Every structure is written in C-alpha cells, then in structure tokens.
Amino acid sequence: MDQQKYVLSFYIKNGVKTDMKRIGVLTSGGDAPGMNAAIRAVVRKAIYHEMEVYGIYQGYSGLINGNIKKLELGSVGDIIQRGGTMLYSARCEEFKTKEGQAKGIEQLKKHGIEGLVVIGGDGSYRGAKALTEQGFPCVGVPGTIDNDIPGTEYTIGFDTAINTVINAIDRIRDTATSHERTFIVEVMGRDAGDIALWTGLAGGAETILIPEEKFEMKEIIKRLERGQERGKKHSIIIIAEGVCSAVEFASQLKEMANLETRVSVLGHIQRGGSPTAFDRVLASRLGSRAVELLMEGKGGRAVGIERNQLVDYDIIEILSKPHKVNMDMYKLSTELSI
Ligand code: F6P
C-alpha cells in the first residue's frame, strides 16, 4: 500500500503524469521583450508540477561552460514586466560544432537535466534541433522581435518592437511635417520584413521596403514626385535593414533624383523596453506549453500560436520551412499609400 502511494506521488505531479524530474531553460540569440515572461512561465509551471528547474545563463555558451543554476519561484519574481532576459543571451559559434554540442550534453547530464526549453530565434532553434537529433529532448519557444519563425503567427517580442517603432515614426512624422522633409527610417529585420511592413502600415508610411520584395528605385522616385505634385510636403520611407542601409538608400535618392532626405536608424532601441500585454500573455502561454510538452515526453517540438490556439510542430520540420511575410498586407500598404 505504502509502496503504491510512493509510485503515485512520483509519477503524478499535480494532475499530470510524467517521468521528468528536472528541466533546464535558456535564452539565446537576439534578446526580445517578453523573454523574461517566458522564463517565468517555464519556471512556475514546472515548479507547479513538482519539477526542478535550472537556468542556463548566457545561452549555449553558458551551457558549454556549465553556467547553470537552480531557479526557485522567487528567482522569477518581479520580471514579467522587464525587457531583456534575466538569463542573459549570446550568439555562440562553438555550439554549431559537434564538439560544442557534446560539451553541452555533458553539462546537461552532469546537472541531471532531462529536458530543455530553448527560447530564441532560428539560430537558437538550430541548436535545439542539434540536441534533439542527438537524443536530448528540447522544446523551442519563439522569442525574437523579427517575427520570422515558421509555425507561429507571432513571436515573443514582435508586438513590443513594432509599438516601439511606431512611437518613433509618429515622432519623426512631427518633425518631417514641420520641415517638409522626406525621412528614411531603417528598422531591424535582416531576412524578414515583418517589422517594416507592420510599422509601415500602422505608421502610414509612403513606401515600405522589405527583403522579400524587389523594388525599382525609379518607381519610388515617381511615387515621391507624384506626392509632391499633389502638394504633399513630407514622406516617410520605412526600410528593413536586410534591404540595404538607409544611408546607402538616401545617397541613391540624392544621386538619381537630387532628393534631399534625412535618415533615422532605430537600431537596438527596438529590442528593449517593457513588453506589451500581448507579449507577456503570449510568452506565458508558450512557455507553459513548452513545459507541458516535456512532461508529456514530447521533445523535438517547437511551440507557436495560430488563430489564438497553441500549436506545436516538429522542430526539424520548422527549420526546413521558409518564413512567409504577409503579402496581402504588403499589397494593402501600397494601395493605402497612393
Ligand atoms: O534577430 C534579431 C535581430 O534584432 C535582427 O533583427 C538583427 O538583424 C539582429 O538581431 C542584430 O543582432 P546583434 O544583436 O548581434 O546586433
């Protein structure tokens, strides 16, 4: 009888049957507002289900170096509203090698960690995929301001970043109007145009340039001239960093159309700040789901949100799919900015 009680308490952890006793969590790649809310969700969900959680500091580089500490309920208090990541982040070349990955697995085993939640973008997912392929269960949580992870409509941090950008555009528009100027605003997005597209549409930009769509300089000049003929005295052009630098674009405009412009590169401002309610809720839901998957013994998954429902996909498949920018929205933005 006593023996049976012991077995039950060992496997049923607050209503969920699991063998998992100890999990790890790390953040990697470019930080994103809401990562802290995701860490909090992972830690609290795991502790709620009577598991232990270890924080791996400085992403995969901290994993290789064994920078690993136990997290308690209080370790994640007062962080839901903070930008950045309390676990720090890094981009780690060594973890791309088999030797680096082996060192990482050794550290996980040494600390008795049986499953890992990886919060980050596509580079972080690649690390999680490598661990998964070597038999270590990992679940990916999409955390990047770029919104460029397949298998989810939104990534953690995107909403905060676009609100930061829109704030900046509104301010730039004030001065652009006063001085009757054309501004070129460069936003982040090396391969993905989501930040440019959403903020361009929300900010009423005259032109939006994204890496996914080719553009003709002559067309842009014609557009600007058409506006001027109609009496339009100022314009905002949003350019994603993956297209070309705003400075380079401005010098091309000067050269081809003798057009005087001002450039504003928003840079890493876009990555900071307190997460919006949307990002906090998204992070809480995705972080918690990642723990559930590990508890269910489902490693090698990536969680996401589609039509407000939590989903999860094979992380290996996710990485083979291209991210698609919403071309209907792109078309709409050109229609509305005539
Ligand atoms: O992946 C997020 C991102 O902010 C990209 O938009 C940007 O190109 C890149 O990170 C910048 O990286 P770093 O922090 O290394 O300058």
Automatic annotation (TrEMBL):
Allosterically activated by ADP and other diphosphonucleosides, and allosterically inhibited by phosphoenolpyruvate. ADP binds at R40, A41, V42, V43, R44, R173, G204, A205, E206, R230, K232, K233, H234. It is found in: Cytoplasm. It comes from the Bacteria. One of its GO terms (cellular component) is 6-phosphofructokinase complex. Pathway: Carbohydrate degradation; glycolysis; D-glyceraldehyde 3-phosphate and glycerone phosphate from D-glucose: step 3/4. GO terms for molecular function: 6-phosphofructokinase activity; AMP binding; ATP binding; fructose-6-phosphate binding; identical protein binding; metal ion binding; monosaccharide binding. Its cofactor is Mg(2+). Mg(2+) binds at D122. It catalyses: beta-D-fructose 6-phosphate + ATP = beta-D-fructose 1,6-bisphosphate + ADP + H(+). Its EC number is 2.7.1.11. The active site is at D146. Residues 22-294 form the Phosphofructokinase domain. Keywords: Allosteric enzyme, ATP-binding, Cytoplasm, Glycolysis, Kinase, Magnesium, Metal-binding, Nucleotide-binding, Transferase. Substrate binds at T144, I145, D146, R181, M188, G189, R190, E241, R262, H268, I269, Q270, R271. PANTHER family: ATP-DEPENDENT 6-PHOSPHOFRUCTOKINASE, PHOSPHOFRUCTOKINASE. Belongs to the phosphofructokinase type A (PFKA) family. ATP-dependent PFK group I subfamily. Prokaryotic clade 'B1' sub-subfamily. Catalyzes the phosphorylation of D-fructose 6-phosphate to fructose 1,6-bisphosphate by ATP, the first committing step of glycolysis. Homotetramer. This is ATP-dependent 6-phosphofructokinase. It comes from Bacillus oleivorans.
